[in-house]
Amino acid sequence: MKKLSLTLVCAAVALGATMAHAADDAKHMDVRAYKALDKDGDKRISRDEAQGHAMLSKHFDQMDDDKDGFLNAKEVRSFARAHKGKGFDKVDKNNDNVITRDEVANNPKLAKRFDAADTDKDGKLTKEEAKAYHHDHKK
After folding, report:
1. How far is CA 136 from CA 5, 12, 14, 82, 105, in A?
2. 30 in Cβ contact with 6 (< 8 Å)
3. How much is the average pLDDT of 16-30?
4. pTM to 2 decimal places
5. Same domain, yes or no: 54 and 100
6. Dihedral angle at the C-alpha atoms of 76, 44, 56, 10, nearest 10 degrees?
7. Closest by Cα among 30, 40, 36 to 73
8. Is residue 94 located within the same domain as residue 69?
9. What is the CATH number of the domain that holds 60?
């Protein structure tokens, strides 16, 4: 389960905004990735099966809308839609649609990755730069 192809981990500040990562990861979970997690083939992911994926495990209770102890594809997509892009917006404290070094100063993980993600070296990260960085560095 190392490389689950969960394709839209993008608008998240690829640098670590958890909810947006969760949302974008969940948004377009491809069929093979979903099936790989669904070890018993019942078309839903149990809490035990979710342990194979950090995001699903961490947000399982939030995602389980009907509280049946399982995640179905609809719940995963619904969670993604509800949280899409919020990670970037959370880090962009002044709402200018870019993230500056000052805005990540209190987050060592983000600060460490800032220069690598800032491809045009203008001292600001756009959503596109964050998306590209994440795409190039997802595990």
Report:
1. 13, 13, 10, 25, 23
2. yes
3. 47
4. 0.49
5. no
6. -40
7. 30
8. no
9. 1.10.238.10
The DSSP call for residue 77 is H
What span, in angstroms and rounded, lies between the C-alpha atoms of 38 and 44? 6
Q: Domain of residue 118: give its range.
A: 88-137
Same domain assignment for residues 93 and 82: no
Domain's final residue, options 86, 104, 128: 86
User: Is the separation of the CB atoms in 18 and 86 below 8 Å?
Assistant: no
pLDDT tens for 44-68 read 999 999 997 877 888 899 999 999 9
One-letter amino acid at 111 equals A
Same domain, 75 and 104: no
Distance CA 81, CA 87 (A): 13
Q: Which residue has the tokens 């600001």?
A: 124
Backbone angles phi, psi at 107, to 5 degrees: -125, 95
Q: How high is the pLDDT of residue 35?
A: 82
**Distances in Å between the alpha carbon of 121 and those of 91, 114, 115?**
19, 10, 7
